Amino acid sequence: MKLTLGDAPYAGAPVVVLSAGLGGAGSYWLAQLSALEAHYQVVRYDQRGTGNNPDTLPDGYSMQDMAAELHQALQVEGITRFCLIGHALGALIGLQLALDYPQAISGLVLVNGWLRLNDHTQRCFRVRERLLAAGGAEAWVQAQPLFLYPADWMAVHAPRLEAEEALALAHFQGTGNLLRRLTALKNADFSHRVQEIRCPTNIICARDDLLVPWTCSADLQAAIPGSRLQVMERGAHACNITESEAFNTLLLDGLHSMLPVLTLAQKESL
Predict the structure, then answer these.
(1) Which of 40, 51, 193, 221 could link 46 by a cystine bridge, Cβ 3.0 to 4.6 Å?
(2) pTM of the entire predicted model
(3) Residue ranges per structural domain of the chain
(4) What is the assigned CATH class of domain 4-268?
C-alpha cells in the first residue's frame, strides 16, 4: 500500500497518520495539513481499494485487515510509532490498531467515531445502500453531502459541491469495494474490548452531525480510560472541513497534550 509521507519539520518530530472515513481518500485532510506539518511528520494514504491504492477487496474484508495493512505499510517505511488521527471509519481503524498493535500507537484522535454502529447510523446507511442499488454511483455521490455537511454550508458552497461530485464520480472506488468496506464498518464492535486501550486518546465530535450522533463520541469517552471529549457545536459529520479553523485549534490542543513537540527556539537551535 502506498503512503504519502510529508517532510518532518525537524529531526525526530512525532509522526501523525491521517485516516479518512468510508471515502478512503487521504485528500480528505487537506484543511489540516498546514497546521499539522509545522509540528509533526504527517502521513496520509488512500485506503486499500480506493484512489492511489486500487485493488479488488476480498469477501470477508474486515477492520482487522484495514489496521494490519496500514501497520505493515508504515513498518516498511521505518515508522514504528505514531499517533493515528481517524475520521469515522478511520477512527475505527485507530481503535483496531490500538488493540492489535498497542506498542505502535503513541496516541489516538477519534473524530465522529463510535463503539458500535448506532441504530440511527444504520438507518442512514440502509437508505444510502438503497440509493446505490437503485441509482448506482451517481445516486450515492449525489446524496453524500447531505450526510456530511450542514445545510447552510452546502447552500453557500454549491460550486464546490459540484466539483467534489465530479471528482468523486471520476474516482469512485467501485460498488463491490464500497459494499465490502461498508460491511466491515457495520460489523465492527469495540464495546467489549475498548477498555483495554491505554494510549492517550482525544475524541472530537460535532453536535449537529446528522450521520453519527454526537452521543456516540460521549459513549467512546466513557469507555476509554483517561480519554478526553471535545464537542463542537456545529460543523456536522465533516466538521474538519466545514469548521476547519475551530477544528484545527482543538486538534492541535489535543495533540500537543499527547505528543511533545519542540518550541520555535528549540527548533532554531538544531
Answers:
(1) 51
(2) 0.96
(3) 4-268
(4) alpha beta
